[in-house]
Amino acid sequence: MWLGRQIWEKNKKGFGEGQCARCGEYCNLTIDHFIPRSKVTVGMNKNHNGNLIGLCKSCNQEKADRIVTPDWYQYLSEERKENLKRYMRYTRSTIRNKTDDPEVLEYLDNL
User: Fold this and answer.
1) Given pLDDT bands bounded at 50, 70 and 90, which one contains residue 22?
2) Fewest CB atoms less than 10 Å from the CB: which of 1, 42, 62, 81?
3) Would you give the DSSP letter of residue 18?
């Protein structure tokens, strides 16, 4: 079992087990990387607990490899969204270098 799966299994309940963090559908969840694996730089742990979110397959495909704001995940608890905000602060310089999305850049400016 790879590390991401171990973290996922250990922390499912913190993600809203069975409920997609984007659309709220109850289903078999897929693992989404808040900061996509393709955007992770050397020294970052792409499978860090703060970087994993449970999404249905459809929402995971919609997000693809984009970086989004925590508010994109409509069904996350406020506590979990705060954790994502902290993660964004921690990875701010990487995010700035990996996206040109004006919404994300403005969000970073206001953190």
Assistant:
1) very high
2) 42
3) T
Structure tokens at 69: 């704001």
Structural domain that includes position 15: 3-109
Which residue(s) pair with 40 in the sheet? none
Domains: count for the chain: 1
* pLDDT for res 109: 94
105: CATH: 1.10.30
- CA–CA dist 97, 111 (Å, integer): 17
This prediction's pTM: 0.77
Q: In whole numbers, what is the pLDDT of the chain averaged over residues?
A: 82
82's enclosing H/E stretch is helix 78-90
- C-alpha 14/C-alpha 23 separation (Å) is 17
CB atoms within 10 A of CB 81: 17
- DSSP code of 19? B
Opening angle at CA 9, ends 90 and 98, nearest 5: 30
Distance CA 79, CA 82 (A): 5
Tokens matching residue 8: 């996922």
